[in-house]
Description:
Layout: H1 4-17, H2 21-28, H3 35-42, E1 48-53, H4 59-73, E2 78-83, H5 86-102, H6 104-107, E3 110-114, E4 120-123, E5 128-133, H7 135-138, E6 148-152, H8 159-166, E7 176-181, H9 188-198, E8 204-209, H10 219-224, H11 231-239, H12 252-260, E9 276-281, E10 289-295, E11 301-309, H13 314-328, E12 332-336, H14 341-348, E13 353-355, H15 359-374, E14 378-379, H16 384-392, H17 403-415
Parallel strand pairs: 1-7, 1-8, 2-5, 2-6, 6-7, 9-12, 11-14, 12-13
Antiparallel strand pairs: 3-4, 4-5, 9-10, 10-11
Helix pairs in contact: 4-5, 13-14, 15-17
Amino acid sequence: MLTRDRVAEVLTQAARDAGDVLAFCRRWLGWEPHGGQQRWLVAPRRNTAVLVTGRRWGKSEVSAIQALHFAVTHPRSRQGIVSVTLDQARLSFDVALATCQREPLLGALVEKVKETPFPTLRLKTGSEITVRTAAREGIYLRGHKFHRCIVDEADYLSERLIDEVVRMTLADVGGQLVLISTPRARRGLVYRELQRGLAGDPTVYAQTGPTFENPNVSHDYIRSLRDRMTAAAWQREVEGVYADDDSAVFGWQHIQAAYESSTWALPEPPKKGRRYCQGVDLAKAEDWTVHTVLDATSRPYRLVHWERYQRMPWPAVAARIREVHQRYGCHQTLIDATGVGDAVLDEVRDVAQGFVFTRHSKLDLLTGLQVALEKRELVFPFVRELVDELQGYAWDDDKLQTDCVMSLALAVWAAGPRASVEFAPSLWG
């Protein structure tokens, strides 16, 4: 335990060292930023800062470090880290907390760490970094005041939520809005603010960068993924640029609308008098087995249970299908009976039916999901893997990860009725 005098000395030294953010990172945080992160850290302060990059660039990491630096250099400041889910928002916070726990000098400045209901880090400077989720229409943000608000994966949040809720947390002090994200769709607030900054707007700092800018990830491994991604997905996820994707099956605006209105957590326990349907896509090779359960009592259908796993023996998969079916008293359970699915279907024929993927049946299945999204007949809590698969899905899906999409499509099909699609016997195993 440091004495009060020693803490005062540490605070004084921190204030002196913090004038050079890169020196502060090295001396106080034990951290060496890569070139792109250095540019972001030394950038001029603007009302809005936008960072759009490929995955694994180090966005959450640099956000955490920048938040710590601001907390030290701006005593009694308050910063919020916000994202579409609490887990996503925690990524930067956990980096900040781990850094404090690892580095003695910075650790001496920690006054208190609170984990519930929302993680909060308080320093002896009087500064505070807290985490909030934007779920439930931003209810957990309303009434809060921040000097800086960092929105992680901001492109997953609606423009309305950022403008009406997040920006208002900064209104009292004229605080800074920090938007960081991988690019999603060439529309919306993040895209517009990025373009403003790149065009020279003096109120916005904007920066982009590919995954390859990070020397701490395997570039060879990243390149090996190229053949498994559409051109548009590669541009978004690796090159970190917005891309037009004419091959996309599901419109981004429809996907976003489906999860934006959700107010419940997964899994939602079964309720008496409700009608449930389960769709299961079975793993092949390195793929995932995915279970999706919908409350299909009325439209819009509500996703109430979702899970995925790998490398489970077929008997265990069959047992899991049966368990979920019985727990929710499913009106129908529909599973992928193509190829290896036959072995599982044989074990669960008393509770499940099989759907055989052919060119025509698959088209009908996906069209049903497409229509449900476009007509706002399907809603679900935000699940990153599901959302990303929906956005990246293309009709030519041979090289795509599609487990989440197909599981959801099977559940929607099972929910029926389908007035425009015949339930042909040829589709069944």
